[in-house]
Structures are given as structure tokens and as C-alpha cells.
Amino acid sequence: MKSFFTISVVLFLLVTSQVFAQSEDYLVIEMNEHDYWLTVGKTVKFKVFWKEKPLKNYPIFLSSPDAKIFSSRTDEKGQACLLIPEIDSKFFSNRYATVPFSVWTKKEDNNNHYIVSQSILVHPQRYGGSYVRDARLFVLFCMFIFILVFAFFKRKSEEDN
Amino acid sequence: MLKVKRLRIVVQVLAFVLLIYGGRLGLNKDIFKSENLRYIGDMLPTFSCPYVSGRVGGCYLMPLQRVLYDTTIEEYLKTWGWPVIKGFFFFFLLYILLGRMWCGWICPLGSFFDFLSMLRSFFGINHFKFPRKVHLELKAVKYIVLMVMFFISLFMAHSFLGLGKISPDFKLPFCQLCPAKPLLPFLEGDISHLTIITITNKTLFMSVLAMVILTFFMVGSFFQRRFFCRFCPMLALMNVFGNLSLFQFRKNPQTCTHCENCAYVCPMDIRKVSEEREKSKVLDDDCILCLSCIEACPEDNTLFFRFFNLSILKSLRKRVEKR
Predict the structure, then answer these.
(1) Best mutation target, A95, A96, A99, A127, to test chain B (most B CBs within 10 A)
(2) Superfamily of domain A2-130, CATH level 4
């Protein structure tokens, strides 16, 4: 449990960490969903802040490993939703691999350009992801088959004895 | 009089709750201050699955596979194989402490399958037994599983004789197929491992096979006692140490009448204890030290279980007559 919290905190810090270009003015992307196991097909909520105030009607981008960029805009509360899109399966090298997506936004002042970019790791394995199928029905089906098989052999062995 | 069967069920339930739900109860392995103790906690000779988030401790087979595919030849040469030896040494220490009692009394997967057997008994269904020949032939399977697991992990990191490396899709080959991986997290409310992964053909094959293996052992364990343990590579790994545990199981061949009570009650269908006529060391490769045989033996002081030279349990005619 403790390690789970540690991972959550580390991820939270990663996502919400602030890339400083200037000392006091900073742009923050906060991810509302602190799920360690993000998956393809899931909607993630973000909040964009400037000097601790939510930025309304502001662009936020999500770039996937196959270089596609998806954008959205923040609402009145500075919130934006982005759907983690389908990507080519080659980006998931194996069932345990995580694939980095990038979430970013930028603030353009008269003098300064700040770009905030964070990686989010998308995992293929967690139930609900596009590359993962629920196997509960399959398990029940296999159980049914094996019950028949074992019952047959049990009966046969009892007859032999 | 001590009822071993009842005591074993109590210990199994306690161990099951501790190992699977202990983290949620605040008994996380992180309570240990020392890093080494935490390290030892992941070398357990039981199927306390590392995929269970609230677990306390973890099964040794995962770090074993990991160290094999994570360690390069340069590192082996530089460290004299220390990363592999260290884990194996701690596993050995834990084995010395309790021996096969890890399997019969503590293993959460074994306990779950025992609970299935109890369910079968509750419904009044007799257990199924393999014919003697098949039973003896199946003994080799666990060693084959262990060797395959070992070599796949090794060949994933190293290319021998120009054969090329095995695909990382087969990483942790035993864990991918182990029934504990989908089953024990499921008992904790996590269904994320009851899945089929369609990323590549290899992941599809492995995940479908894992589900088939899970159901095979679940149904098999309902019909036959300790069905999975007959194929368990952990038991094969323990057999490397043979009789080295502090707990010893012995027989007095002079007083044995070969009544076969011990063979009848044995969940692993071992006949060696009954058939041995000369030697006192009768610990079979498959024995899980459940001690059912001692409880069922009708001859005084014929079978006994001891810690060093301290007798803990011995067979008594009175106990059997009382039943």
C-alpha cells in the first residue's frame, strides 16, 4: 500500500512539476486523474494554471508516440479533457511496457515563451485498454470445458476401479 | 490431543490473510527498518504473488527470472554472479527455517486449492486419483517447468551459440502463465489480470494460455487434492536442498505395518512413506509436510516430526482409535 502511494505521489509530482523559465511566473498542467495505469481509450482531465489561477479557453495538446497531436481547450474552470488515442501496436513492445504520451501547453507573453510539457505513461495491460480484452467469459467457458473433461476422467477411473 | 488438520487450516487461513491482505491491514513489508529484511521478504518459497498490491512479501520465482534476464555476462563476470547467488542464498535460508512447511502450511495458492478440496468434500464428491504410472511420470514435469523458465529467462538476456535472443514478450515466462497471477489479485478485488492481451501474436498466445492454465488448475484442484503442487517449480527448486531443513520427518521402518493409511490420506498421493522398509528418511520429492500421515498412522512412534532432536509430533495408536 505504501509503495502504491509512493508511486502515486511520484507520478503526481511528475505530472504537476513545474518547469521554471522564470523565477515566479510559472505555468502548470495538473492532471486530475492520478491513475498510475493509464490506458488507451481513457479520458484524462487536465487543469492549466498560470500564477496559480486557472487559464480559461486555453489550448492544451496531447502528442502520441506516433507523432500525432490532439488538442483541446480549457473551459471556465481551466479544465480540459483529452482522450488517449489508439496508437499502432508496435509502440507497445510487450505486455508490460509503458508508452510515453506527452501533454503540453504554452504561454506566450510579450517577452517570454514558456512551454510546459509532461510525459504520461500509458500502459497496455490494465483492464479496459484497447489492447486488453476482458477474459472473464473466456475463463468461465474454459472452466465449463474442464469440468466436463475432469468429470469424464473421474467417472472413467471409478469404473476402472 | 493436537488435531493437526484443524491446526493446519487455522495456520493456512492466517498465512493467507497475512500474505494477501497484510499490506491493506498495515502489515506491509516496509515495516522492516532494514533494507535486507525487505529484500528477504521478496524471496519467499511460496506463491505470495508480487502482482497482489496488498501483499506482504513475494514469491522467489519472480526475482529469480528477473535477475537472469537483467544481468549481463559482463556483470556476471564482474560480480562473480553475486546478484543471482544473493537471492538464492536468502531463499535457501528461508527454506532451512521451515522446509516444505512453506508449501503445506503457508503457500496462499496451495491453501486456496485446499479450500477448493474442502468444498468438494462438502458436496460429498470423492477426489480423483491419477493411475500410479501417470503419477510417477508427472513427477518430472515440475523440473521441466523449472528448466524451461530458467533457460527462457537466460536466453532473453544472452545470445548463446549464435541462436539469438528470445523475444521480450516472453519476459517472466512463468509469471505470465502462473495461475497465482490472475487468481490471487482477483481474490483481492483486482480483475486486471483476467485479461487477454492482443498487442502481438505472442502476447495473445501467452495470455490465452495463461487463462487456460488458470482454469485447468482451478477445476483440477477441485477434483484432485493439491493438483497444482504436482507441477509446481517451487517444489522442484526446494528439492535442490533435499533434507536440509531444521524440521525433519522420519519413519521407524521396524514398527511400520504398511497399512497404507498414510498413502490414503496424503494429498500428494505419496506412497514412499508406506512402502519404505529400511530407511528412516522418507521425505519424498513431492512432500508438502502437511503431516496428515502422522495423524493417520495407527502405530505408536512410527512416524515422527521433529525440530532438530526435539519431537513435535509422532504417530499414536490412541489418536487413531479415538477418531
Answers:
(1) A95
(2) Macroglobulin (MG2) domain (2.60.40.1930)
